[in-house]
From TrEMBL:
Membrane-crossing segments per the record: none
Name of the featured protein: Sushi domain-containing protein
Disulphide bridges: C65-C83, C150-C162, C157-C175
SUPFAM superfamilies: Complement control module/SCR domain, LDL receptor-like module, Trypsin-like serine proteases
UniProt xrefs under InterPro entries: LDL_receptor-like_sf, LDLR, LDLR_class-A_CS, LDrepeatLR_classA_rpt, Peptidase_S1_PA, Peptidase_S1_PA_chymotrypsin, Sushi/SCR/CCP_sf
Alphabetical list of PANTHER family matching this protein: LOW-DENSITY LIPOPROTEIN RECEPTOR-RELATED
Length: 528
């Protein structure tokens, strides 16, 4: 009776609009978990959990989609669109040639931006500041601004421009896409906001016509500052991080620049500097070499803890600076085992001239601990549930069980289980789940998207979009070995005794599937 009362109370709270912090109400009234909001995956049927209006000010621990949703850093530029707006695979972020892209500015000064259609010059500091300066708006485009880093007290327009916060929700449109006057945002920021915004402001007038070299200056300008040629490992960029300044170029007085250290170095000191009347106000930061984080961030099979002068954190944390003398303790992740008896690696970050590298006696190699059912687990930990949608993209029906073969691959021993080739109609739920569910409604399933479906005879092989994170209750079954004797266990599953334990194997699998599994795992390991 008490449980029924609790359910009724929750129902009444939701109906009067009092929603607990751990829940988010979709615009159509459906309730989902707050953690599912702005995670780059659409959970509300009306897409409202991943809209700019809900995610524009989201704080992300790693990488952020342009609209505001969060993704893991391993998903950035991995060849697969994870942000629904595609911003994680945008050419400005992913092409080495485009990261330092600077459009032709013939006729303008070295530190100026040339408008695309109109022969005008603009100080680079105004590019992507959220205010249209070029008459053609070319200083405020997605191509220019999608990589922006907006400082505090700014509003990030949907296309990437960084607008002074006081100009957002002031009933005058500044962002070229109008995102600074979206009613759903402004009514939250200002309860007195009136949705009567005027059209986009005209060009600010800060852009000037192409220089002829004969301009008559009516008054001397304050002395600017030169970017030193001696800054070997530094990139000096505009405040919003969208355009690089050339070394040796003169920066106008009052301009603030952002200093970026090259890859595998870390900035010690302020990353901002300002020119005032010919003098830089801050000392340029030191760019110290650091050891690579790639191994810790991308290797599913290991976990590492780093210690630098008593500061102990996960090595994969972006806030952990992997400076020389950092000690990394590396062990196998849950669900993995070392191929040798010693299951620990100690690596020390050591400086070698202008670079830093990890130095260890040996490299720990971990492989999935396949085919074992731990004593604490009642079900086969490699079993997962295959669901397919029919009449609605949000309603999913149970089809069959599949078996985990690797972090990225599922095997299905039934042609009739999965006839469709449409990956959008299929999802995988961890464990043995059989009840239908609606994707835009609350459920307890941990779901995985499908990237591709492969068929061979009556077998199916599914490649996941995101990997399984192995544990005691989630791990793969072993692939069959040649010329080994096994004991039958269940449909397509056998076992043999190894070191006093039952280890379970698939009884058979098409040879072309084995080749695919090796290919998928190799590609994913390389990319991620």
């Amino acid at each position: 009776m008490f449980r029924l009362w609790v359910y009724l109370q929750i129902f009444s709270w939701l109906n009067v609009g009092i929603i607990a912090d751990e829940y988010f109400e979709c615009w159509n009234g459906v309730i989902i978990y707050e953690l599912a909001k702005c995670n780059s995956k659409i959970d509300c049927s009306d897409n409202s959990d991943e809209k700019f209006e809900e995610c524009y000010n989201q704080t992300c621990p790693e990488e952020k989609c342009s609209y505001g949703g969060c993704i893991n850093s391993s998903k950035l530029c991995d060849g697969t669109k994870d942000c629904w707006d595609g911003s994680d695979e945008h050419v400005r972020k992913c092409s080495p040639r485009m990261k330092d892209y600077r459009p032709d500015n013939t006729g303008c000064k070295r530190n100026e931006f040339k408008c695309t259609e109109i022969p005008e010059c603009l100080s680079s500091q105004y590019v992507c500041d959220g205010i249209k300066d070029c008459q053609d708006g070319s200083d405020e485009t997605e191509l220019m601004c999608i990589i922006s880093t907006c400082p505090e007290n700014t509003f990030r327009c949907k296309y990437g421009g960084c607008l002074p916060i006081k100009r957002a929700c002031d009933n005058v449109v500044d962002c070229v896409d109008g995102s600074d006057e979206i009613a759903a945002i402004c009514t939250k920021l200002n309860t007195d906001y009136l949705n009567t915004s005027s059209p986009l402001r005209n060009a600010s007038g800060r852009a000037t016509s192409i220089h002829t070299g004969n301009e008559n200056l009516t008054a001397p300008l304050p002395k600017g500052c030169l970017i030193s040629e001696t800054l070997q490992k530094h990139q000096v960029r505009t405040l919003f991080n969208v355009l690089p300044y050339e070394k040796g170029a003169e920066i106008p007085s009052t301009v603030v620049v952002r200093v970026i250290c090259d890859n595998n170095t870390v900035s010690i000191g302020s990353d901002l500097n300002q020119c005032l009347d010919g003098k830089w106000q801050e000392t340029w930061p030191e760019c110290r070499p650091t050891c690579s984080r790639t191994r810790f961030a991308n290797d599913l099979s290991t976990q590492a803890t780093c210690d630098y002068k008593g500061q102990i954190r996960k090595c994969s944390d972006k806030d952990m600076q992997l400076l020389p003398k950092t000690k990394a303790t590396i062990t196998c992740s849950p669900g993995y085992k070392s191929i040798v008896e010693n299951s620990k690696e100690i690596a020390i970050c050591q400086r070698d001239g202008e670079i830093a590298t990890w130095n260890s006696q040996r490299v720990l190699k971990c492989i999935p601990h396949c085919g074992k059912i731990p004593d604490t687990v009642k079900e086969e930990p490699w079993l997962v549930s295959v669901f397919e949608s029919y009449t609605s993209k949000n309603q999913f029906m149970y089809k069959c069980f599949g078996q985990i073969l690797s972090p990225w691959v599922i095997f299905i021993n039934s042609f009739y289980c999965l006839i469709t080739d449409n990956v959008d109609k299929v999802v995988i739920a961890e464990g043995t789940q059989t009840y239908e569910f609606y994707r835009d409604q609350e459920h307890s399933y941990h779901l995985h998207e499908i990237e591709s479906i492969h068929k061979s005879g009556h077998y199916n092989l599914l490649k996941l979009h995101d990997p399984f994170i192995f544990s005691a209750s989630l791990r793969p079954i072993c692939l069959p070995r040649v010329l080994q004797k096994y004991v039958p266990f269940s449909n397509n599953t056998v076992y043999r005794i190894e070191n006093g334990e039952k280890i379970y194997y698939l009884s058979k699998i098409p040879k072309d599937f084995k080749d695919l599994i090796r290919k998928f795992d190799k590609i994913k390991t390389k990319v991620h």
